Amino acid sequence: MKIQLAIDDLTLEEAITLVTVIEKEIDVIEIGTPLVYQEGMRAVTTMKKRFPKKEVLADLKIMDAGYYEAKMAFQAGADYVTVLGVTDDLTIEGCLRAGKEMGKQIVVDMICVKELEKRIERLETLGVSMLAVHVGTDQQAEGRRPIDDLKLMKRCCRLAEISVAGGLSLDTVSEYAQLQPQILIVGGGLTHAKDPGETAKGIRKKIKEWE
Ligand SMILES: O=C([C@H](O)CO)[C@H](O)[C@H](O)COP(=O)(O)O
Fewer beta carbons below 10 Å: N end or C end of the chain? Predict the structure, then answer.
């Protein structure tokens, strides 16, 4: 299982410092949506140049202009870019085309998708190979967690790899790891940790128990 660090509310400089400390424990560096707003594609390019052995995900949450926006992120150095599962199939197909041309991956973020099972089936038919279960920050504030959607996703997915995000932390990561998603996404659980180095080591240790 991979660990994806989601960097949302840090400056690019703070993000680089954090990744330097926990580099060994993480596999994917996510340039979170707020960081993209703040810094643009510069954040993607800088992070890939600084940490060339790490995979970089640009969390653009694309809703339209799929081909154009996905290609922009890939050209900036992203290995993965996100598109929203609620959007039109045409946008998903545009992203997939950009991914194919560039030899990179599209991740479909299932935040706010209502009929999850039906949508998973459709997305897999379109050729999507990575799906992200996601309970967003605002939904988390109302007490929602991604565990049930992850269970459903594990039952319904035929081929796609699965990642999961939504408030994962050192305390809760085992619950998710035992369901065997391919990628566990941790944002605030690391970026707001008192000791990110120790927390990242702890998360890695807990995940290893389920591998
Ligand atoms: O995608 C995210 C959110 O929508 C803000 O852009 C977060 O990166 C994702 O939810 C992971 O962060 P945590 O929930 O803090 O672990």
Answer: C
